[in-house]
Amino acid sequence: MSTQHHIVIVGGGVGGTMLANQLVRKLYPELGSGKVRITLLSDSPDHYYKPAFMYVAFDSFFEQELKRPERSLLRPEIDFRVEKVDRFDFPGQCLHTASGKRVSYDFLVIATGCVPAPERIEGLPEAGDHFYQYAAARQLAQRLMTIKQGRIFITVSFPQTPNVPHQCGIAPVETTLMLDDLLRRRGVRDKVEIIYTYPTTAQLLRNCLFLQRPTGEVLPTIFSQRAIQHQRGFTLDRIDPDARVAYSKEGQAQPFDILMATPPIRAVDAVLASGVSQSANDEGWLPTNHETLQVYGLERVYVIGDTVDLPVSKAGGSCHNQAPVIANNIAGEIRLGAPCAVYDGKVQAVAQMGLDAGMPLTYDYTRDVLPTPPTKLGGLLRNGFNRGLYWAVARGML
After folding, report:
1. pTM here?
2. Which of 39, 184, 221, 245 is most exposed, with the fewest beta carbons within 10 Å of its own?
């Protein structure tokens, strides 16, 4: 290893941004003496608060409110470059960018997230709507603001890789309850059916309504109070866009006027092309050490956020707890010659349980979420996070 340690982070989402800032704080003496330098590569000059896309679907956020220049969120000691990485050369300890540059590293953190892949289900791109990207969420908002009667069908698709969850585990429940509130405010709830469905296999559970049992068991009561229909064991197989019918692998059919989907997801192209992943269906999740967050089989390579193959939510609340572990482990390798911190699988968030109510939640590898009654105070907490605290988190301040 060279005298100067070059730490390269690929990805300017919340995981990469938070980690870069925490590394500056953790390794400040080495940065000052020139023993360490930190580079963050992102394919965009802008940073998006991605959980706000869900609110875009309910006309609560505009694009200008949910993005900021990435440079404005980073400590000045960080070398930020707008470069799309299109190839990882792990044996050569370098990256190749779309603009033809070669970037070498001593430590690498892959923070490239995941992307929706609706094209993996026949008919879903033509007939389905989702809220995991800005343009898609705006299109869904148009539909939700204008429907006067009919059937809104909610479906969730899990990765085929065992024990890997879909993106943002609680989001389908959040948006179902927000939808109920929205339609009531619009005065059309009695003319619109809402049907929430969940696939037969969800992580370690079967025939449930959520990926963890305590929450899954309380949902029927919450849904019944709001006249939301719910169905277990609906694994989306294909859609007939002309007839507007969704078919399940279990042999069921569900007609719809709006199909609000949690689509399949996959890793980004460069990660897929690296050949390191052994996940099913070419999904690209990297084999991740549950405790150190190192990529198995690769020296001094770490992964954070949505690209991991861990059984924890692919959400910012996971990155919040993974970033300090990776920062400590890289510092440990530089100062002590070995990683020194352990990730316990902790995730925390405030779930949006309707347009105004919120529910703080936390879980880890060994403990499931314990649902508590949603409150307006919880809603204020979530709103405070959406409108300000998130940017402090990204800066590594919280």
Report:
1. 0.96
2. 221
